[in-house]
Specification:
With 142 residues, the chain is mainly α. It contains six helices and no strands. The protein folds into two domains: 1-77, no CATH class; 78-142, no CATH class. The protein has helices at 6-27, 33-42, 47-70, 82-98, 103-112, 116-139.
Length: 142
């Protein structure tokens, strides 16, 4: 069972929202992580590449900031096998491709702009997540 952490969750959500607003205000871009990563992997080294790389570096470095502030790293336990993680990653990649974006782009940025496409995509993400959890926990006994 996951520990209930309302203050940390609120703070994390606040920082994600602030980052999304700042990226839109400074660069006029959506904070969709899959698109940002794809841009780093496919673009040349220019200003477009630089902000994308900096954004991703900030995401990777954020646990180190937490370590500096609190003196400890976040505890992460993954109760699934490596094979299931690979399958889940593959299916997520397929979903991102067919959905034209990820949960950060559609769920955080798109919904805040009242994009019908993003609202529908987020509803699909959530329904799929609920169905997956139900199947894994109650049908397959995971």
């Amino acid at each position: 069972m996951t520990e209930f952490t309302p203050l940390l969750s609120f703070g994390g959500g606040l920082l994600i929202g602030l980052a999304a607003v700042a990226l839109m205000a400074v660069h006029g871009r959506i904070a969709g992580i899959s698109g940002i990563l794809a841009g780093v992997l496919t673009s040349r080294f220019d200003q477009e590449w630089a902000w994308r790389a900096a954004f991703l570096a900030g995401m990777v470095a954020s646990p180190l900031v937490l370590l500096g502030v609190t003196g400890r790293l976040p505890e992460i336990t993954v109760p699934s096998s490596p094979l299931l993680l690979v399958i889940g990653g593959f299916l997520t990649g397929v979903g991102v491709t067919f959905g034209s974006g990820c949960t950060s782009g559609h769920g955080v940025c798109g919904m805040s702009r009242l994009s019908v496409r993003s609202i529908m995509a987020t509803m699909t993400f959530m329904a799929t997540a609920v169905l997956t959890v139900f199947l894994v926990r109650h049908v397959f006994g995971g």
